[in-house]
Write a structure and sequence with these properties.
The complex is a heterodimer of chains A (266) and B (267). In chain A, helix 2 packs parallel to helix 7, helix 3 packs across helix 11 and helix 8 runs parallel beside helix 13. Chain A is 73% helix and 0% strand. Chain A has 266 residues and is an all-alpha fold. Chain B is built from 14 helices and no strands. Chain B has one domain. The chains are: A mainly alpha (266), B mainly alpha (267). Chains A and B meet through helix 2 and helix 9 of A and helix 3 and helix 10 of B.
């Protein structure tokens, strides 16, 4: 309870700190929104020009970017500070965190308030509302529960990927370069049915870089395309659980990497 | 002597890159994977579609792959070298740019030139491999190749000025993180990196015609794939050149105003 109170107080202070530069604050909210709009624009253009993408109708396809964007927005809000950790390592801030009586991971997450998450989540919620209103599916309690689980699982899976890269950054600060690419890949290739891609490429985005589990597989299960994904149905359906497991594994990796951390100059 | 100084300033970032082999390996891997993914995506999308928005499958794939390669031209990590304008403004070291015998605007231009030439070497290497592998189509004639090269040069010139404006913004706002992110978004969307502008609705294409972004990439690539015919090339090149002049005058004015805002040791 004490820890929660500290987290809340630090977050409030961080939020006020972001308000110090008002124009930057508003621009960051805007950038979160328009960054997500770019994903919508891309998906809309593809849907308009290439109807029946991968055998999915447009209302079904919309569920993929909506799920991914909500998961991404929540990840940015709660667990997103792993993204820029290379800079913290280069500037020796991790060394300072190690001397304080709070877990380093939590200190990293509390380093600043992610203003852009406000814009991210606003647009993502709007897109999800649009996707659900256009959907022809019967939204039973089970489906809604699965969708919520998929969003949380997607958030954790995305966080796990960035945490794994952050763990690598503890030894190789330049690994942050990969984080920028990962975010770009998630935005570009995580928003439509991956069965339009050749099998080898789809396999890469499933097993080497598991972005198919973030939104594509859960959306396929929800819309009845779960048997056409190229992976066993149970594996596609287990995407939310996989997110939890991979995140726990990434935290173990982080702890292990931190134990071997020797400073950027060591 | 001036040439020697220019050479030394221009090679700073490329030298930094050459001394970090892991980063170069990462760039190579990223570029390869991105090209394969993008080519696969557009090939897959066209599997059940013929010509759409005036583009055939080969034209769309060529456009998309060239867009990925062109995005390498100015994608260097200046932040790691602590020589970005925002860092100098934050630490107060921007004043040193004004104390050197080299004017800040020339230093900035030389650094950018070095980066763009280094990025161009990457893009050219990628293009040669993609061409040999048959992923991209060759230009349809020598005239198309020549016009494309000229248009690409003008496009990079426009891009240089756009990036300069966002850096100059730091002299007034101290921070430009959001401005840079908005620029990246606008640049990617309105220049056709996400998808060729020809796929967008007419109103969107008309709107983008009034902004400088499409001059950076969409115009040269459309000329290359033949979506803009050679007969229309002169007009497009003139528009690109006009943007170069307009942005050159604007950034010159901003450099002049920015210099008045720099104070040393409290003024």
């Amino acid at each position: 309870m004490h820890a929660v109170r500290i987290v809340w107080r630090v977050t409030r202070l961080n939020f006020r700190a972001q308000l110090e530069y008002r124009s930057e604050f508003l621009l960051m909210v805007a950038i979160g929104a328009i960054w997500q709009v770019s994903v919508i624009v891309f998906a809309t253009v593809l849907l308009t020009r290439f109807t029946g993408m991968g055998g999915w109708d447009s209302s079904e396809v919309l569920l993929i970017p909506a799920t991914r964007m909500l998961a991404h927005g929540l990840m940015v809000l709660f667990l997103g500070r792993m993204f820029g950790i290379g800079r913290d390592i280069q500037e020796g801030r991790i060394d300072v965190y190690l001397t304080r009586p709070m877990p380093v991971h939590r200190q990293v997450q509390l380093a600043y308030f992610p203003t852009n998450a406000i814009g991210d989540l606003t647009v993502a919620a709007g897109l999800m509302a649009g996707a659900l209103s256009r959907s022809h599916l019967d939204w039973t309690a089970v489906r809604i529960s699965y969708l919520i689980a998929a969003i949380i699982g997607g958030m954790l899976l995305e966080a796990a990927l960035f945490t794994a890269l952050a763990s690598a950054s503890l030894r190789f600060p330049a690994a942050e370069y990969w984080a920028r690419w990962l975010e770009e890949l998630l935005g570009t290739f995580g928003s439509y049915p991956l069965n339009v891609l050749p099998k080898a490429v789809g396999g890469f985005l499933t097993y080497a870089l598991p972005l198919a589990f973030v939104a594509y597989f859960p959306a396929a299960v929800l819309t009845g395309h779960g048997h056409d994904t190229g992976v066993p149905y149970w594996l596609a359906a287990a995407s939310p659980l996989l997110g939890v497991l991979v995140y726990l594994a990434s935290r173990l990796l982080w702890r292990r990497s931190l134990a071997h951390y020797a400073g950027v100059n060591a | 002597m001036a040439v020697l100084h220019a050479w030394r300033a221009a090679r700073v970032t490329p030298l930094g890159e050459l001394h970090t082999p892991p980063r170069m390996t990462a760039v190579l891997l990223r570029l390869t994977v991105q090209v394969v993914l993008v080519a696969s995506l557009w090939t897959g999308l066209y599997a059940h579609t013929g010509t759409t928005a005036g583009l055939t499958r080969d034209q769309a794939v060529t456009y998309a792959v060239l867009a990925v390669l062109a995005s390498r031209l100015r994608e260097l990590d200046q932040y790691a070298g602590r020589d970005s304008v925002i860092q100098h403004m934050h630490y107060g070291t921007i004043v040193y740019w004004y104390l050197r015998p080299l004017p800040p605007q020339r230093y900035y231009a030389l650094r950018a030139l070095g980066e763009q030439l280094y990025g161009f070497a990457w893009a050219l290497g990628g293009y040669a491999v993609a061409l040999a592998a048959g992923v991209v189509e060759p230009p349809r004639s020598a005239a198309v190749a020549g016009v494309f090269a000229l248009s690409l040069l003008l496009g990079q010139w426009v891009l240089y000025y756009i990036m300069l404006v966002t850096d100059q913004w730091c002299f007034w706002a101290l921070r430009n993180n959001a401005a840079v992110m908005i620029l990246v978004f606008a640049q990617n969307l309105l220049s056709g990196v996400y998808a060729p502008l020809w796929f967008f609705p007419d109103w969107f294409v008309t709107l983008s015609a009034f902004m400088p972004f499409q001059a950076t990439l969409s115009v040269p690539l459309s000329l290359y794939i033949g979506r803009i015919p050679l007969s229309d090339a002169a007009g497009q090149l003139a528009i690109q050149a006009a943007w170069v002049v307009i942005l050159a005058l604007l950034t010159r004015f901003l450099w002049h105003r920015a210099a008045r805002r720099v104070i040393s040791q409290g003024g």
